[in-house]
Amino acid sequence: MLQTVAIVLVALATLVGVAIFTRGAAAIAAQVRVGRPAAGRLTPVGRRAWTALAQILGHGHFRGRPVVRAAHWAVMLSFPLLFLTLVTGYGQLADPAFALPLLGHLPPWEWLTEAIAWLGLVGIVGLIAVRLRTQPRPADEPETARRSRFFGSTRWQAYVVEAVILAVVLCVLALRALEFAYYAGEPELARYATTVHFPLTAWLGETLTGSGQATLAGAITVVAAVKILVSVGWLAIVGLQPSMGVAWHRFLAVLNVYARREPGGGPALGPAQPLLAAGAPVTLETLEDLPEDATLGVGTLADFTWKGLLDFSTCTECGRCQDQCPAWHTGKPLSPKLFTLALRDHAAATAPFLRAAAAASPEQLSAATLAGRDGFTPHTGDVLGALAAVGATGPTGVAVGPTALVPDVVAPDVLWSCTMCGACVHQCPVDIEHVDHILDLRRHEVLMASAFPAELGQMFKKLETKGNPWGLAARKRLDWAKDLEFEVPVVGADVESAAEVDYLFWVGCAGALEDRAKKTTRAVAELLHTAGVSFAVLGDGESCTGDPARRAGNELLFQMLAAQNVETLTQAGARKIVVTCAHCFNTLAREYPQVGGHFEVVHHTQLLNRLVREGRLTPVAPPAAEARTVTYHDPCFLGRHNQVYAPPRELLDALPGTTAVEMPRSGETAMCCGGGGARVWMEEKIGTRVNVERAREAAATGATAVATACPFCTTMLSDGVAANGDEVEVLDVAQLLLAGVRRGRDT
């Protein structure tokens, strides 16, 4: 009787659970298909498949959390490897001694099953403990609650998933113990009741021997039924919740990692992706050929690619991105996680309308419009609802446009708080491309809606008319070289071509026009001269690389500046370029190839480090009384975006009399200075200023100087130190090196 009830109950539950789960999977697939094409995201197949396999099995994105990484790895493996125990459970409903053919009593498989079950148990208990320890509590102050990476995550969904995993692995271990005891009481099966077949559960099974075969058989039936019901119940729950990313990521993460921007495994950082229209990059040449109704950037849900929509569905709500976001941790409304969840929920609510509208015939559209005018109230699934979602006539006869993502889904303050430091992308375990999505939203706001902070309008105008964000005359670009003890050759005046020198020195707008950055420029020039490295500059032939315009969303202004600079550099015969600005470095090296500019670009810390290693620059220690402690701040566009971490640190280590100390957030987890993403040109009115928080962290190390490798960082941190009233000097690494080299030269 027990077996009959269990079989009937499990059969019905399985049919319902699988049907609901299939319906949920179909809903997600249909939702993703609403997006535009994403060229190149599925090929090359071999390279992408290998990268995805290595990334998933190696858990490479669980950076800085070794315990969580190990626990999640064990839980992840338990999902596919214990699946066959679920299949075995169905057989055990009819026969307690059922075992899979071939594998059922194969010792290596039994060892693996038990090992993974125990590891899964330890792993899920550990993950539950982590969540309980770091979960915001109702009694927490708002600021305390915000510090939890689980703030804003859907709590009940995580608890359901964790409870299901815990129940399943406990059932697996309980079944193994019951099987041992049952086999021991059956003469023809007793040979299996040994530690060879039950290496990690025999001790538990021995406590159950002697319970009686009927009792053990009934227990096996009950536990197998519970295991199956829990599993198919989970299928039903997630099927009813297609937006339950904490569960669906088990399936979607594989595809999302496979379809990542970089097939070889790098994060979606470095160069910004080209602006696309009708699937093709928008350039100054193609702009005139665009249709009048072309959309630039992302303004509505349908403007996202399918990869973008897949990103939103894949989010696990783990909060690692939120935990690293400098905007969130200084009181801004931007949380990369909440940004993603808002778009995910909007996609789940809107995609059915978009699909219905796309599938509707002209007759249906006409009838729906007439029905609307008669006062018919649309609901989900109605063609009229679909029309309202995509911009047709609503029930009152008034045109209803598609939901504007900004400000209806994403608040402007959220969009413009981003510094594009890339910490969110770098930390995401499932390869969500937050920065690309924020940039696409900015592009639409700037190019289509003309909605952006007022400060950016002034900056755009200065870039367009003067070629620099300060609006200063081009003739001032060589003022930094005045009073140097050597001549700085200019291409076109002192040398005919940059090919005649070792490097073209790209000074950059800040390096040429901002007083603090000029000191870095002079230091680099003197160091190159001392090392015997020949170089030349473009002088007033330089113009802004366009990074501030592009990161602010003004792609067309970037295209104009980039095309002008590529032409200038090509005519100048530039082959190798050295830069001091991390943003110029990223733009020239990683983004200009998109517009036909291919140059060998090196950051000044890389070149200077090589010169020191070759003995062409020899720093000398200061007097003992002048020894200093220095902490290095990683520029985001040098570190996370381009993986240049070692050269600046090696330079500091090569300076006698200098002791380097690291900030708590350094290297891959370094906090932004607050100036990226064109934020250096915008007022920061919400929460604590990012640069003030970072300067406070630097001063807390006890260092007397903060070393930087980017003029934006120098400016932002100098202002932050001043705001805090700390007596900490902010210097570029080149300035510190120059002081040591001068001591050696004077000696």
Automatic annotation (TrEMBL):
Q: Which UniProt keywords apply?
A: 4Fe-4S, Iron, Iron-sulfur, Membrane, Metal-binding, Oxidoreductase, Transmembrane, Transmembrane helix
User: Which residue windows are transmembrane per the record?
Assistant: 6-26, 70-91, 111-130, 156-178
Mind telling me which SUPFAM superfamilies this protein's record contains? alpha-helical ferredoxin
Which InterPro entries does the record match to this protein? 4Fe4S_Fe-S-bd, 4Fe4S_Fe_S_CS, Cys_rich_dom, HdrC_iron-sulfur_subunit, Helical_ferredxn
Q: Please give the PROSITE patterns that the UniProt record associates with this protein.
A: 4FE4S_FER_1, 4FE4S_FER_2
* Domain 4Fe-4S ferredoxin-type intervals: 306-337, 406-438
Q: Keyword Nucleus on this protein? A: no
According to the UniProt record, one GO cellular component term is: plasma membrane
Q: Name one GO molecular function term.
A: 4 iron, 4 sulfur cluster binding
Q: What is this protein called?
A: (Fe-S)-binding protein
**Which species is this record about?**
Georgenia yuyongxinii
